[in-house]
Design a protein that fits this description.
Length: 237
């Protein structure tokens, strides 16, 4: 790994729990291998493009990395419904990431819906270059998971294939297809792929108790949460 620079942001209103402040540590790299990043993942880091980040809030430790041990995973009733609604209906294409007008349009529609219904900050992509910086330009090869209903693009996810795990980077979907629970189905698809390829874990990023947009992750059980001492604590089932 070749690091360019690192910095810590000033305290600002938390993007997950608005009654708190957060601080993030960033490290921008020139080079990063999957093995390098997997080591960082075990220490609670995440990444977008060439920027690694992790929360370093002095008075809060609510952000916990969550992973699913795929051998022991058992879908619950709502997850089985998502499988039944989409298996045989959606086509999944796994390719290297690329920018297209359909992905830009879907990304903007997803974020507009989340702003109106979940109170997310307004964020629309200003250019194809911004999309590429977030999802296409990466220090190592990643996967783009595109879901189609007939010929209509309804969901796009980005995945890091790493030693001992698949790491979900980001997922956005068509808000008019909410009844399909596409976000849940994407995670279930990752778990299924990991099981088929004997990959032991799927990493879902941060779980934050009390954050409506992230609490769904805890419904994938059993799961494990990264503790401040660096150990992974299994969920109690």
């Amino acid at each position: 790994m070749e690091s360019l620079f690192t910095f810590i942001t000033q305290p600002s209103p938390c993007g997950y729990l608005p009654d708190r402040d957060w601080q993030l540590q960033y490290e921008v790299v020139r080079e990063l291998t999957p093995a390098d990043y997997f080591t960082r993942l075990q220490a609670g880091w995440r990444r977008f493009g060439y920027a690694l980040f992790r929360p370093v809030c002095p008075t809060c430790q609510k952000c916990q990395s969550l992973r699913i041990p795929v051998v022991s995973f058992q879908p619950n009733r709502s997850q089985r419904r998502a499988l039944a609604a989409n298996d045989g209906q959606l086509r999944l294409h796994i390719t290297p990431p690329q920018v297209t007008s359909s992905k830009l349009e879907l990304y903007d529609r997803f974020h507009h819906f989340q702003h109106q219904n979940r109170g997310w900050p307004i964020h629309t992509l200003q250019s194809a270059e911004e999309f590429a910086d977030s999802f296409v330009n990466n220090p190592f090869e990643i996967q783009e998971w595109s879901y189609y209903l007939d010929d209509k693009l309804v969901g796009v996810g980005y995945v890091d294939p790493l030693p001992q795990g698949l790491s979900a980077i980001y997922f956005f979907h068509d808000p008019t297809e909410r009844k399909r629970s596409l976000g849940i189905y994407n995670v279930l698809s990752l778990i299924r792929a990991a099981q088929q390829h004997n990959v032991p874990y799927v990493y879902l990023g941060y779980y934050v108790e009390g954050c409506r947009s992230l609490e769904y992750k805890a419904h994938f059980r059993p799961h494990e949460l990264l503790q401040p001492d660096g150990t992974w604590q299994p969920s109690s089932d």
